[in-house]
Write a structure and sequence with these properties.
The complex is a heterodimer of chains A (about 300) and B (about 250).
Chain A: E1 24-27, H1 33-39, E2 46-49, H2 59-68, E3 73-76, H3 90-103, E4 107-111, E5 114-117, E6 120-126, H4 132-149, E7 154-156, E8 163-164, H5 171-182, E9 185-189, H6 190-199, H7 204-210, E10 216-222, E11 225-228, E12 234-237, H8 246-259, E13 264-267, H9 275-299
Parallel strand pairs in A: 1-2, 1-13, 2-3, 3-4, 4-7, 7-9, 9-10, 10-13
Antiparallel strand pairs in A: 5-6, 11-12
Chain B: H1 2-10, E1 20-21, H2 28-50, H3 52-58, H4 60-73, H5 88-93, H6 104-119, E2 141-144, E3 149-153, H7 157-165, E4 179-184, E5 191-195, H8 197-207, H9 212-222, H10 228-238, E6 241-245
Antiparallel strand pairs in B: 2-6, 3-4, 4-5
Helix pairs in contact in B: 2-4, 3-4, 3-6, 8-9
The chains are: A alpha/beta (about 300), B mainly alpha (about 250).
Chain lengths: ~300, ~250
Amino acid sequence: MMRAQPRPFPVSRAAGARALPKSAGVGLKPQHGEALLRERPKLGFLEVHAENYFGAGGPPHALLTALRDIYPLSIHGVGLSIGGEGPLDESHLDALAALLARYEPALFSEHLAWSTHDGVYFNDLLPVAYNKATLTRVCAHIDHAQNRLKRPLLLENPSTYVAFCASDMDEVDFIAAVAKNTGCGLLLDVNNVMVSCVNHGRDPYAYIDALPIDAVAEIHLAGYAQDRDSLGARLLIDAHGAPVADDVWRLYAHAIARAGAMPTLIEWDNDVPDLPRLLDEAQRADATMAARAAHETSAA
Amino acid sequence: MNGAIARSLRESAAPAPHGLATWNGSAPEQRFAIYRNNVVVSLCDALAAKFPLLQKMVGDDYFRALARAFMAQTMPTKPRLALYGDGFADFLANFPPLERWPYLADIARLEAARLDAYHAADARPLAAHDFAGIDALPDARLQMHPSLHLLSSPFAILTIAQTLESGGDCAAIDPFEGQRVIVVRPQGIVRMFAVAPATLACIAALQEGATIAKAAACAQNVDVSFDVGAAFHLIVAQGLAAAIFPEKTP
């Protein structure tokens, strides 16, 4: 049975945590560390993948500790396997709890996906069917994670390439139900919306219009790669190896018009460009938010 | 459903799982292949990041083939890719086509040790003055640095590794000149250097919790001319120890 009300969980607002400003940030790449420390470019925040910092010490922690003093931080998990059929890995939750205690990030987010099954980790974000059974399971896992981590998490909408015969809900309705039932926030990945909507013949603007926008607390932007399916239809791949596409920028402007300015992350994980190129992308996100604010002021 | 997907992902020849749908009736197999490719490519990349020298030695294509063969036997069990591939050296040692290149497995061990040292816990290395106040030094024990790894190989693994890294020519190296190698990261940078067999025996004994007197005796069993003073100079100079306990271990 789904609960009508979200269960309250103990929230520890870490004393040192700084909220993310409503401006653009970038994913931290080790090769940019020295330039960030030296030049301290204006940036809303930095985001890291939690699992890259599960080691006990060494240069990764030294760099993150130093940058944590300069920039607000968001931690993004990629391995919790919230959509998994088995129970969540307690040792993984322990490691996450330790990492969150060490860095006190402003936000912690994870994916609506699974990556581990029967003790095997696939290192990919794999899709779930959207139905009552998965909804119950996903909500139970998020409840458990939020209780263990003593904070709400943000759930990211997935990019998917296949759908399931067993699905009987729209993705956006599924995500809305998860947010309602667990009290989790949402990480709106605008590139994922574009990828999934193109791949499944849906309208990405209608997707964003249907999302419970008040639950959105962060936005992700990334570049996709393009292929064709067996019938020649466009098939987008969430590759994180290119600049944000123009149609994703337009969709982002639409999302900002609905949600207002949001902490917005530029994800560029493969074929990583130099820092100035990455900062250009971040500035474009800031400019999109500024243009929207100006439009609203002139309309008022 | 996840089980069926997992099975199809593990077996590259397996068909896509039943129950997949596409909006336009296009082939689900082709779309499912994107996931298959993500898994294989990302795990190959993870192994390549952990074993860059091995990849240099065998070439990119052969390394990818080795990685896929390893993957078919051993998938990651945890979402921590730095840990994936700890069994790669044993896999290479038992891979018949590589029989004529027996040192490749020890190169893999050296690279795994180096990555482990990189991520190991931080600790301030002992300095000379930390030993000054200890009355009965022979009865003391050391806690070695958390990043310390000791390797003893019948092959010239350090010379091969350093030659590869400097872009030199490995053809001039006799791979069968064994080396004892210490890997440690006292501060930010991982160090690797070769030591004499007796020195390695001394440090291995200390790492296992022996007193300094016992460790020196172990080393002298290997080489009667072992110089305990020189070994201590090395421990301090290279930052191999993190704590000293007079007499009994705590």
